[in-house]
Each structure stands twice: as C-alpha cells, then as structure tokens.
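Project outcomes to date are best conveyed with an example. Our students and postdoctoral researchers have been running inverse folding experiments weekly, and each run begins with a structure described purely in tokens. The record below, which covers 120 residues, was selected by the lab manager from last quarter's runs and is presented without edits.
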C-alpha cells in the first residue's frame, strides 16, 4: 500500500489516517497545518485576483494617425486623432496605395504615443 499524501488525499481524508498511522504527532500535525495554511493563502490570492479583475479600469483608448509612405522620400502625416477602426478603414480603401511618377506609395497608421482622444 502506498502512503497517502496531502496533495492526493486532501486534509479531510488524511486527518483520520494520520491519527492512526503517524509515529510523531508533531510532524503530522505540522504537515497538515502547513497544507491548510497554503490552501488558505491560495484562496486569498485567488480572491484578490478576482477583485482586481472586477475593478480593473478600462485602458485608455489609443489614438492613431494616418501616414503616407513613399518609396523615395520622407513619410508625411495626413490625419491625426483617429480611432483604430477609423485608421484601419482608411488604410483598407483602394485609393490609399498606388504608383505616382514611377514611385510607389501607401497609407499606413501609427499609434500616437502620449495623446488623449478628442471628445466627439
């Protein structure tokens, strides 16, 4: 027969076993108390995580800008203060990329770090 462990049996099933089979009461009592203390600490940690998840503030909305990139030349900002949906909608249109004078170009979007959204 294998010796029961705290992980497999749990405190309720293990308590009677330890009462009849333990050779040193101080050892088995301490192990059981440690196990119960560990489980209680885990319950507290889980409860704190659930509270944090409930009360977590929504992240601030990110603001984007539309940039026109040229094959030769510097990028140029076309529009500022757009939401992600607006920026993606703009860049997916067929008139936001092409060739002009032998040079290719396209519109892309970039996150505007440190900018707050404008009230609409």
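After processing, the design step wrote out the following sequence:
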């Amino acid at each position: 027969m294998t010796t029961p462990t705290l992980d497999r049996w749990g405190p309720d099933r293990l308590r009677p076993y330890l009462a009849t089979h333990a050779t040193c009461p101080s050892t088995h009592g301490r192990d059981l108390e440690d196990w119960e203390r560990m489980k209680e600490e885990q319950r507290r940690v889980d409860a704190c995580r659930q509270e944090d998840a409930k009360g977590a503030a929504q992240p601030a909305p990110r603001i984007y800008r539309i940039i026109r990139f040229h094959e030769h030349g510097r990028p140029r900002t076309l529009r500022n203060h757009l939401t992600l949906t607006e920026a993606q909608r703009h860049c997916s249109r067929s008139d936001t990329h092409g060739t002009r004078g032998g040079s290719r170009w396209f519109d892309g979007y970039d996150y505007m770090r440190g900018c707050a959204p404008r009230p609409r």
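The longest strand covers residues 103-111. The mean pLDDT is 76. The training component of this project remains on track.
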